[in-house]
Amino acid sequence: MGELLEVYEASTSASLAQYKATHASSISDVSGYWSELAKSKLTWFAPFSEGLSGSFEEGSVSWFAGGRLNFVGKENETAIIWEGDEPGNVKHISFHELKNEVCKIANALKSAGVTKGDVVTLYMPMVPELCYTMLACARIGAIHSVIFAGFSADAIADRIQDAKSKWVVTASAGSRGGRNLPLKTICDAAVKKDRCVGVVEKVFVFDGKGETGSDWEVQDIHVKMTELVAAQRPVCSCEWMDAEDPLFILYTSGSTGRPKGLVHTTGGYALFAMHTTANSFGLSQQTAASTDGPKDVYACVADAGWITGHTYIVYGPLLNGCSTLMFESTPMYPDCGRYWDMVQRHKITVFYTAPTAIRSLMRFGDEAPNKYDLSSLRVLGTVGEPINPAAWKWYFDVIGKGRCAVVDTYWQTETGGHVITNLPGITPMKPGSCTLPCYGIEVVVLESATGKEIETTEAEGVLAIKQPWPGMARTCLGDHQRYLSVYMKPYPKYYFAGDGCRRDKDGYIWITGRVDDVLNVSGHRIGTAEVESALVAHMAVAQAAVVGLPHEIKGQGICCFTTLTDGHTESDDLIKELRQAVRTQIGPFATPDMIIPTSALPMTRSGKIMRRILRKIAAGELDSLGDTSTLLDPSVVDTLSKKVEQAR
Ligand code: 6R9
What we know:
By secondary structure, the protein is α/β, with parallel strands linked by helices. An 8-stranded mixed sheet has the order 13-12-9-7-8-15-16-24, with helices on both faces. It has a 7-stranded mixed sheet with strand order 6-5-18-17-19-20-21, with helices on both faces. Strands 22-23-25-26 form a 4-stranded antiparallel sheet. The relative contact order is 0.10. Bound molecules: ligand 6R9. Residues 252, 306-308, 383-386, 408-413, 434, 497-499, 511, 514, 520, 523, 525 line the site of ligand 6R9. This is Acetyl-coenzyme A synthetase. Keywords: ATP-binding, Ligase, Nucleotide-binding.
C-alpha cells in the first residue's frame, strides 16, 4: 500500500500542538492521568486506593484496585435505536426502558441460579435482548462470553467447554439479510456434544423471529426466556464489583489452533471504553452529561459478537449517555444503499464501519449514496484492518462530501479500545495511516529481531506499547502462561501487539499487517492453525498449510494447500467437502477462497513447511520468492503456482 502524499488538514482551531502536549503529559504519568478520569467519569460505590499497579512482565497489571463500582445510567433519553433486518423496522429504547429490561433479565438469570463470577455464553442475533443480556450479566456480576452468530456448533462447544460455562443464552432464530438464522438449532447441536454434556445446566431461549428451529425436546435444559423475563420485576439491585473483577471474556484467534478467552475488567475497561468513544468520535461536548445542544446520533454497524460491538456499540456509547444504533442487517440488504438510507432516516452523525464494507459498496459506484441526504454526518470511522487509500478517499469524498473527519482507529480485542487513531478536528489525516497514539497510550516501534526500541522518528518494525493502560485484557481465561508468552514475553517490558508497522517522518503510524499466523479476512481474525486443524480432521487430508491471499474486497482471503492421505485423489467433490469441513468446524465466515490439493508442499530439508514461499505462490509473486536454497525439492514451486493459476 503506497503512502499518499496528501495530508488532510483538520478543520477546527484545536491544534495538533495541543494534542501533542496533552499526549505527552498523559504518558508522563499514566497512573495519574487515568486516575483523574476514573474519579470524574465513573460512579464509585467505594473509592479506589491506587491507580496503576503491577507490570507487563509479571502479567500483574491492575487499575483502580480496591474501588467498587457498577454502571448506573440516565433515564428518559434514547439509549438504543434498533434497526431490524427489514428497513424501517425500528425500535427506540430509552435509558429508562433499558434499565427495566436489564433488571428483568438480571432477575430471570438469578432466579435460575446464575451468580456472580459465572460465565454466561451468549449466542444471539443482533436484537436489543443481546445488549440487555450483556448488561444484565454486568449488573449481577456474571461474566458474559458473546459468541459471534456466524460461528458453528463446534466452535460454540469449544468455547463453552473452555470457559466451563454453565449458562447459555440464545434465541429461537434470527434473521439477517432476509435469511433465517437457526440459532437455537445450532446451539442445541453444540450443547449436545460430549464436551458440553454435564457442563451446561440451562439454555435460555428468547423468542426470535422466523422459525423456532428444533423442538423443545430437552425440557430440563431449555428455559423459555421471554416468558421467564415477563414474570420478573423491573428492579434488581446491582452487585458492587471490584474494579479488577472480570466484566466479560471474548474469544479471539491467535497463532495456535485454540482460540483464547481474553478477560476484560470492570473498572479499567469501562473507563477506557467510555473515554475513547468520547474522544475518538468527538462526542464529549455534545452528549456527556449535557442536555442542551445538538445530540449525536451514533452508529457503529459492526456485530456485537466482536470486540468492536462490545466497546463501540454497547459499553462506550451507553456509558457516555449517548444513544447507540444496533443494526441487525447487512450493508447489501435489500440493496447497496442500506447504510445511506439509514443515515438519512435516523440523521446519523457518527458512522463507524470496516474497510471491507466500504470496498464492497464502492464497487457499486456513487449512485446509491448520492440518492440519500447524508448531510447529518460529522465523523466517519473505520476499523479492523488497514484501509487502502482508494477506499479512504471514496469514504471521505462520496460519503463525507469532503466535510467529515475519517477516523482510522487501530486497536485489538486485547486492547479493549482504540490505541491509535486521529482525533476529529484535531489530527491532520493521511489516507491509510491510523496516525497518532491515543491519550495515555505510549506506542513504540521495535526492531523485530532484537526488540530494540527505534528512537528515530522514521522507523519500521513491530508495534508495541510501553506502559499499561486501563482497557488492556488482563489474562487469557484459565491460561495465564499463554497470555504472558503471546503478549509479554516476546519483547520483555513491552506489550507486543502482533502487528508490523512503519512510522513516517511526522510520527504517523502505518500498520503493515500481522506478523504472526493470524489472517484478517473482512476484518475477522482467523488463525491459520484453526483452519489447518479443521482440514486435517478430514480423513482425506494428510497435511495442511494455510496462508493469506490478497483479496480485493476482503483484504485477505484464505488459501489452503493440502496433501492427501493414501487412497484419496483430487476432485471437485473433495474440494467441496474440505470447504464444508472448515465451515462446520469454525463457521461460514472462515470459508476458504482456494483449496489446492497437492502431492507435495515446499519443505525445508529439516522437514518444516515453508509458509513464506506458499504466501508468495498464493499471491502470484514468483519474482520475489526470496531464498529458496533450503527447499528440499524446488520443483514444487512451479507445480503449485500452476495449480494456483488454474484455481483463480
Ligand atoms: C478492533 C479489531 C485486531 C487486528 C489488529 C490489526 C487489525 C484493526 C486496524 C487494523 C490497521 C486499523 N486492525 N484495526 N489494522 N488499521 N485501523 O479489529 O480487533 O478483531 O482483535 O483484530 O486487526 O492487525 O491486530 P481484532
